[in-house]
Design a protein that fits this description.
By secondary structure, the chain is α+β, with helices and mostly antiparallel strands. The chain is built from 8 helices and 8 strands. The protein has one domain: Peptide Methionine Sulfoxide Reductase, Chain A, CATH 3.30.1060. The protein is globular, with a radius of gyration of 17 Å.
């Protein structure tokens, strides 16, 4: 386990375990393979305008966060919680499965460079495995569910149509289980979770489960990849 006391100060390492996505041995699982998926047939056109926001969930937020930090057109990426209430939006409660929250990632992006459909193509292709129900790799529970939290009817239509498109095309060996849920709120996670992959690239969980996702982004969607990541503070 890495030492996180420089961010949260004075907390015993025994308690820090509750602030980690998983303590299951990483060697028991392999990182998800990238899947080449077609672009969505239904999408918003790219156009200049104010930054837009997308919220997705796909397992431990460290890896999903890390993927979108390396996507051209993103301006800020935050880890956090969606699906539950403010009262339960803390890692200790969420990680026990005692809330309706999913570990989620909020992506602020330039609509002139990225469409909402582009965000979802990356999500289904390299960010996680959308056929795993209430888990991702070593992490098990509804807090690790595959979910798209839509902010408006346009996002809902694009997400639902894309899932149907991919299922019809049998892109995956199993059916997609991704839930499309209305976004009621996004609550940023604790400071020590933000930019976790950037700060801790040698942490074993990151090496096994998350760095391969970034390598897959660069390999499968090279036009979307950028070397220098954005951070949680980038657009503030």
């Amino acid at each position: 386990m890495i030492r996180l006391s420089r961010w949260i100060g004075g907390v015993a390492l025994a308690l820090i375990a509750a602030a980690l996505c998983s303590e299951i041995p990483t060697g028991a699982f392999a990182a998800e393979e990238a899947v080449v998926v077609p672009a969505p047939a239904l999408d918003n056109p790219k156009a200049a305008g104010p930054l837009q926001t997308a919220v997705v969930a796909g397992g431990c937020f460290w890896g999903v966060h890390g993927v979108y930090q390396h996507v051209r057109g993103t301006r800020q990426v935050l880890s956090g919680y969606s699906g539950g209430t403010k009262a339960t939006a803390d890692y200790e409660t969420v990680s026990r499965g005692e809330s309706a929250h999913a570990e989620s990632v909020e992506i602020r992006f330039d609509p002139n460079e990225l469409s909402y459909g582009d965000i979802l193509q990356i999500y289904f292709s390299v960010a996680h495995d959308p056929t795993q129900l209430n888990r991702q790799g070593p992490d098990v529970g509804t807090q690790y569910r595959s979910a798209i939290f839509y902010a408006d009817e346009s996002q809902r239509r694009i997400a639902e149509a894309y899932i149907a498109q991919l299922d019809r095309a049998k892109v995956f060996r199993r059916a997609i289980v991704t839930r499309v849920e209305r976004l009621t709120a996004f609550y940023p996670a604790e400071a020590y979770h933000q930019d976790f992959l950037i700060k801790n690239p040698s942490y074993p969980y990151i090496v096994v489960n998350d760095l391969p996702k970034i390598a897959n982004l660069k390999s499968v969607l090279p036009a979307r990849y950028r070397e220098q990541p954005v951070t949680a503070q980038s657009a503030r």
